[in-house]
Protein 1
Amino acid sequence: MEMERSGSQPSQIKMERRQPTEGSPVVLVVEDDPVLRSTLSWNLGRDGYAVLTAADGPRGLELARREPGEVSIVLLDVMLPGLNGFQVLRELRRSSQVPVLMLTARGGEQDRIDGLELGADDYIVKPFVMRELLARVRAAIRRSGQPSVKPPVMISRGDLTIELDRQRATVNGTELALRPKEFGLLAALAMEPGRVFSRTELLDAIWGEEAIVDERTVDVHISWLRGKLSDAGLGSGTIRTAYGRGYRFALPGDAPDPPVGRRA
């Protein structure tokens, strides 16, 4: 997995490849907004897809063409640096019929007509409801005849078990009394142990992009969640602070973080 380096130029890309199950469809997200790109990547990964991401048009086109048949669907922003989404789509359609779902903040009728006439399979206007986007992804993959995937229903991390379909978490079989937002935070962090999530990423994933919530709300809920995990015997170090960056889920046996004399 390539990670975008600190201080990189805006035209450089970040590519994430989740660890899919065998045969999982691959979704290519071409979006220059880093927060939305990360939110889409997280939600698609949670639904069981493998995810590639690019932050500009040329790299998105390169990834879509790199291995014909590897990418199952492209989520393509219209306003991109390098090449805009319409230009990427026009070039892509010269050699590929991979499903393309256009993402745009421009909801004009002509924009939708232009995208569809160039060969887009669907069009969704920002801001959108994540559940709707995921449903459209599943529908586009289904129409293309590719196998779909079932989202994971359970996460096991040592003594902790998270049942996503039942919104239930247990430690050694004893259920934790979690508020909905606490459960969402726990599931998001445990889904990718070791990955540092910023407060903004957690807010967008759990509260929603349109929610007007102070970032410190995440800190309060994390504090409550740590207390409940500690009371259940997991220890408050299960969810660790990455100072200046956010929070991460630590697996049993992870080395303790070095002490830092400032807050996150």
Protein 2
Amino acid sequence: MTVKIRLTFVALAALLTALGATTALADSSQARYDVRLIGAKVGEMAMASNETASAYSTRARFATTGALSALKQASFDLSASGGKSGNRFVPRSYSEVTSEGRRSTNLKISFSGGVATRVTGDTGSSAPAVNPRTLPGAYDPLTALYAALRDQAPNQLCSLNADVYDGHRHARLSLTSRKALDGGRVQCSGQYRRIAGYSTSELRHSAAPVSIIYVPQGNAMRADTVVVRTRYGKVSMHRR
């Protein structure tokens, strides 16, 4: 996945949403989002996830739509799974299949004991890579996105502060500022920051402000709107 798509993804830097049908997971939750750039719809994303007290698995699919699709087609299919320790996720595997016009990638990361131990495929960067041993407990990009977008108890909101390792680069996703809104909604704000493994030019734009608005859904809070302010403009995700 290129840096531009990854930023417009996870933080969105992630930002992304969905191909028509999502592969269902047993006892899974599913979510679909419209993705907009400066107000115009540019893509759709779908996520299907399964979480228990000790494990999780999640999959996300994204594709460009509309006028942007006519100019530049891009898609990805990501999956991640692992264990849980309290409210922390412990990734075991991550896979990423992306397509941008004539360019496609197939990346896989294996984790053991909270540390990435094996990376295969094209990471899309010629900058010096980060040593994953220096990042114990880091999340892969999809686990980081899932941690931000999954349904959560009200008292768990706005506590995400995770290192992110994509097989080459180190970034950090933080959502620690909390603001109460009307109707029981809560806004969590923070940033997605590039730290290492990026080129000098990429580090000139190292931080992207991120905010997520959660709405009440039964006894939980559900991510409804995501906004990421990038140097390309405001990217937003709107749950259907």
Protein 3
Amino acid sequence: MRAELFGKPLLPAVLALAFCLPVGAAEMAEKPEVAKSAAVAAAPAEAESVEQPGPVSPKEKPETVEEKPAAVKPEPPEPVLLVGDPLPDGLEVRGEGKALQSQTVSLSAPVILLPGQMIVQQVWLDPADPPQGISLRFRTAAGQEVGVYWEGEAEVFLPAEEQAEIWYYGLLPELGKPTDLEVFTEDMALEGETIQAVRFVTFGGRVLWGQTHLAQAPVEEPAEPTPFPSLRVPSLSSGKSDSSSGKPE
């Protein structure tokens, strides 16, 4: 039997083997390219690399212009009491007739007057016995007396004859009304000077001198420039000149 098998031609045996294989396998055997592609397809598919989106930039916000806060003016410091009591319990100085009377009050401690300061003095002039003039004076650490004065219609203070350096500061305040007299230290050339006492002077009449304060002088706002009126230049009439006469037509 074995001899007979080997003795037979090989072609019938190969054909029989081909019929025994599955249809798909036979096709793969006949076409090696198909078999190779099938093997590739049968292999587990590799994970495809998915390109991840980059970080999403935040939505650009429109630029906003920051509004600068309006400038706030600093509050001036509170006035400092130098001497005196509030009206009507002030210091009474009475000048009999046309006499000059005064009282000097020493400060509890010397005070240095700085630039930009002023003295605020409370006064009350008796309408029943009005004074002809009043004067507020300061004694410096060097022993000099400097001040200002107010007068009525008549001149009663003569600076040339005074032992103090005083300047005229205006008319007398209203009679019978408590008034705050403001005196700038710059006007008395006392900036940077040290004062030790205040002298209250009354020429005739009766005056109540109230509290004496040292305060910050108000800052003057710069004046706005005044615009100049626009000047209208008259327009020259255009005309062609006559070449023969040299005059415009």
